[in-house]
């Protein structure tokens, strides 16, 4: 239940509202980069709370995870045209976040994020063509 309240409902703001209201750019990659920065800044105060344990103390690794998730969830939103699949995916990601962030290193995270960005961007480009 906490994954629905903490992460799942964020997608109402990120995907249902913000992704569709970034009017300055029609390009998927630009929109996702901006959204990832907003999402990262949103989490900084949250991860200062003592009862939140899922966040990485390494903010570069944490941002890279958010960057990859932004692209994946953004592509899911483009394909599904709705926020519910994004809410469910965010809940799953939050459930697995501890496993993903424990003992993670840049050499493990960077290839994952590059893969997520490339596949998500390709899927959105294919969908629009």
Protein model, in words:
By secondary structure, the chain is mostly helical. It has one domain. It has helices spanning 2-8, 10-18, 28-46, 59-80, 84-101, 106-128. Helix 2 packs across helix 5 (84-101), helix 3 (28-46) packs across helix 4 (59-80) and helix 4 (59-80) runs parallel beside helix 6. The chain is globular and about 45 Å long.
Query: Segments where pLDDT lies below 50 for 5+ residues?
Result: none
Radius of gyration of CA atoms, rounded to a whole number: 14 Å
Supply the number of structural domains: 1
* Helix share bin: over 70%
Structural class: mainly alpha
Taking the sheet with the most strands, its summary is:
none
- Alpha carbon gap, first and last residue: 38 Å
Question: Count of DSSP helices?
Answer: 6
Q: Quote the beta fraction.
A: under 5%
Estimate the global geometry from the Cα principal axes. globular
Average pLDDT: 81
| Quantity of strands, as a count | 0
Q: Could you state the order of secondary-structure elements as H and E?
A: HHHHHH
